[in-house]
Amino acid sequence: MPDRILFWHRRDLRISDNLGLAAARARSPQVTGVFCLDPHILDRDDVAPARVTYMIGCLAELQRRYAAAGSDLLILQAEPVKGIPQLAQAIGAAAVYWNRGVEPYSRDRDTQVAAALKAAGIEIKTTFWDQLLQAPGSVTTKSDNAPYTVYGPFWKNWMQQPKAEPAPALAAAEGLAAELQEQAQAAGAIALPSAQDLGFVWDAPLLLAPGELAAQQQLEQFCDGDRAITEYDEQRNFPFVEGTSQLSAALKFGAIGIRTVWAAAEAAYNHCRSDETRSNVRTWQQELAWREFYQHVMYFFPELADGPYRQQLKNFPWVNNEDQFQAWCAGRTGYPIVDAAMRQLNEIGWMHNRCRMIVASFLTKDLIINWQWGEKYFMQKLFDGDLSANNGGWQWSASSGMDPKPLRIFNPASQSQKFDPDGEYIRQWVPEIRHLDNAELVTGKIPSAERDRAGYPPPIVDHKTQQALFKAKYQAQKA
């Protein structure tokens, strides 16, 4: 009689190219999936309704795909340390498998769940680094075998490492008999709730439809369909152009496997006919490496989740003006490119990456507001919000992170002129000033009378003045 295996899904909401799930199926056809709606995550004050909506959509499709493979995906709403062992015992699971995570909470939670399962006499298998192409510790400095704290050398080493092929999809599995279904329900298994049932309301369309199928289609469109990947380096910085993969949420929740993504990128690279197109593909692969870099450093430096990496930023004298922060959140700073980006975030739960850097620089360097305020606001809104990437990006923008040239300050006007020269992005998201000419839009030099007529606010700070103030504070901290 084959063993019953319980596979615990977390950031791997798919049945294809799932390392832990493939290993469980290789051991036994009797594989049952479970996802636990964890109150320690859902009850936080930085959970985005758009993100929960996407996650629930992914789970709904995952249940359908489990059924098509012959098995079941069960849903719990409980603390995992109690719910997972209780369910495993109820269905007679010989072992519980899951993929590993890098974030501090997930690691602490997994340690507790593993201990509870061992105490119940249930085997655990948790050696799978499914969400990464290279496991933490596999890419280290050659001099002292330490984790990298600078991206450039990390990328060079990381790129040289072999990359695994996609894992086989779950197939020909066996579901729970009626009696075990009843026992699972008695142990807490419930019907999948909606996001609204959980208290999260999001009515706007999502940038990417939830689930494995939509993620795979998006990958194919990006890498092979309209060939966006071969123009990526040229187009990725223009927020009005759909020049990015838009796979960030799928990668955050594991609606697509990273080995599948890498294989598609490699195939695109190998089909290129010029050095220029190969360079574009390579740039996208470098972005995938940035994703891994931030996860590796979160694993080795978990304190990043709570504060700055650079010592001089730990007691930085932020101004932290609450009214200015609220203006930034609402897209009412009087700087058109900043306001366009914040309104995009508020309306669709996503923001173009170039704009993420612009608004983060503006919050920290122009308003001199603690980057953690912005980091949290992003997590409250982003449907692709990911601790490692979001934290890494904010620390980079705030000059508090792992950047060999930390003092970077973006000028909103020059960013607009370079990346939205015709004001198309600004016109889309700040419609009250769309009638203005390009020069006024992209520079933000709008006559007061025009601002008054449009109901658009004057700049809340002067960029040149604030830039000098931030630099003075920064240099004083170094002394």
Can you give a write-up of this model?
The protein is mainly alpha-helical. It is built from 22 helices and five strands. It has a five-stranded parallel sheet with strand order 3-2-1-4-5, sandwiched between helices. It is globular and about 80 Å long. The mean pLDDT is 96.
Secondary-structure map with pairings?
Layout: E1 5-9, H1 19-27, E2 31-36, H2 39-42, H3 49-69, E3 73-76, H4 80-90, E4 95-99, H5 104-119, E5 123-128, H6 151-160, H7 178-186, H8 212-225, H9 232-235, H10 248-253, H11 258-271, H12 275-300, H13 322-330, H14 336-348, H15 353-366, H16 371-381, H17 387-397, H18 412-419, H19 424-429, H20 438-443, H21 448-454, H22 463-478
Helix pairs in contact: 4-5, 6-12, 8-11, 11-12, 12-17, 14-15, 16-17
Helices, by number, come to 22
Question: What letter string, H or E per element, gives the SSE order?
Answer: EHEHHEHEHEHHHHHHHHHHHHHHHHH
Radius of gyration: 24 Å
Structural class computed from helices and strand pairing: mainly alpha
Indicate the low-confidence ranges by residue numbers.
none
Shape: globular
Query: What integer is the average pLDDT?
Result: 96
**What share of residues is helical?**
40-55%
